[in-house]
């Protein structure tokens, strides 16, 4: 049986996305990066494949997986969904003044496209001839576990918390198949949330690789601290 390992990162930004690429390459993975800013349909000298897409357009997701299978010769064995979006309400004090079209766009990025990607990942896992680990990891945050009264977080929290439901369900549904599903939520050492600029790309890359390659009892709602790995925060987590 083949042992080809392929990582697909959807939403491959300069922090977590690029660090995932670096760390997984070191572990023997072929890497595919998808974002709005990368070169379209390019293979770099180190073998990384880049595909340009706007994940607001959920209809584009299936074609990305088809392209990868056609150009690399197999489906991704690990899929990381790393995209996020946030729209500030027109009235900063009123959560319901987010324009509906902006809410729908942000939900498409964080939930609908992610849901389609997870379905495509499972189809690929089933069809894969590789004995490499199979995993889907979603870059989440604390807003799937707590609901602070902060209007500007309306779309970000709605998208992340919506995705957390089906990730948790899929974790149980596909456990017997050996497919792993995780909602990864980086925290400070005392369990607080982190700003986007404070997220650790290297810390996420190391933790995600551990989730994929090691057998552990880490739950699907995988809270972690950079440099420490999984840490359970009973007052702000999910089961």
TrEMBL record:
Gene3D superfamilies: NAD(P)-binding Rossmann-like Domain
GO molecular function: oxidoreductase activity
Keywords from the named record: Oxidoreductase
Record flagged with keyword Nucleus: no
Pfam family, any one: adh_short
Keyword Disulfide bond annotated: no
Family (UniProt): Belongs to the short-chain dehydrogenases/reductases (SDR) family.
Name this polypeptide is given: Short-chain dehydrogenase/reductase SDR
Organism: Oidiodendron maius (strain Zn)
